[in-house]
Specification:
Elements lengths: L2 H12 L13 H9 L2 E4 L3 E7 L3 H8 L12 E7 L5 E9 L3 E7 L3 H10 L7 E4 L5 E6 L3 H7 L11 E5 L6 E7 L3 E6 L2 H12 L3
Antiparallel strand pairs: 1-7, 2-5, 2-6, 3-4, 4-5, 7-10, 8-9, 9-10
Helix pairs in contact: 1-6
Length: 206
């Protein structure tokens, strides 16, 4: 069973319909929380790709606009994916894993992005895999976002694009908290139950 099936079932059972409005600007409760408190939101509308292999760093360095070689394990970074003439095809966020990279971007361009990126692998020792359904990601934001994290007993990165990693209790996987600009955080999980546990903790104050 794909992780998102468990995750979506949890959201269906716990989040009231009034809070599941996907139309931007029409969720008044969410907007008020964004202005004055804290809110949590599902980020399944972003695709996530794993880039693994001995040549992963060299490959991404040649494909993306930012300096992949300087990316520390404690940081995430934005980059663009462009045509040879400089037209941007995608804006991505990436971070390192234990044996490669994760690249996140809008789900609406997932198929063409992955197809085009794979075209340039050629003889490089690189494996590109869509792992969107194998991870859970949700966001936390609002003026009180940092307080919500601390109240839930979760790690709180200090600076924009800092990454804090926490080993999962049940295996070798890690959970991540990524600090984004504007009092926002992204939480990334390899285990659905860990995501559900932390969502519930945060829901006490967000």
């Amino acid at each position: 069973m794909a992780m998102h099936e468990d995750w979506n079932r949890f959201l269906d059972e716990t989040v009231p319909p009034a809070l599941r409005n996907d139309v931007p600007g029409e969720n008044e409760i969410g907007l008020e929380a964004a202005r004055t408190g804290g809110f949590i939101c599902d980020l399944s509308t972003y695709a996530l790709v794993s880039v693994l292999g001995p040549d992963a760093e060299t490959f991404l360095q040649g494909q993306l606009s930012n300096d992949v070689t300087s990316l520390a394990t404690s940081r995430a970074q934005l980059a663009s994916y462009n045509t040879p003439k400089g037209r941007m095809l995608a804006c991505v966020m990436l971070w390192r894993t234990q044996n490669g990279y994760r690249v996140q971007f809008s789900e609406s361009i997932a198929a063409p992005f992955i197809k085009r990126l794979s075209m340039f692998v050629m003889r490089s020792k690189v494996k590109i895999t869509d792992v969107s359904a194998q991870t859970v990601r949700f966001g936390l934001g609002g003026p009180n976002a940092e307080e919500c994290l601390r109240a839930a007993g979760l790690a709180c990165p200090a600076s924009d694009y800092d990454v804090i990693r926490t080993p999962d209790d049940d295996g070798p996987d890690e959970s991540l908290v990524i600090k984004l600009p504007g009092s926002r955080y992204e939480l990334v999980y390899a285990q659905a139950q860990a995501a559900i546990r932390d969502w519930r903790r945060l829901a006490a104050s967000a």
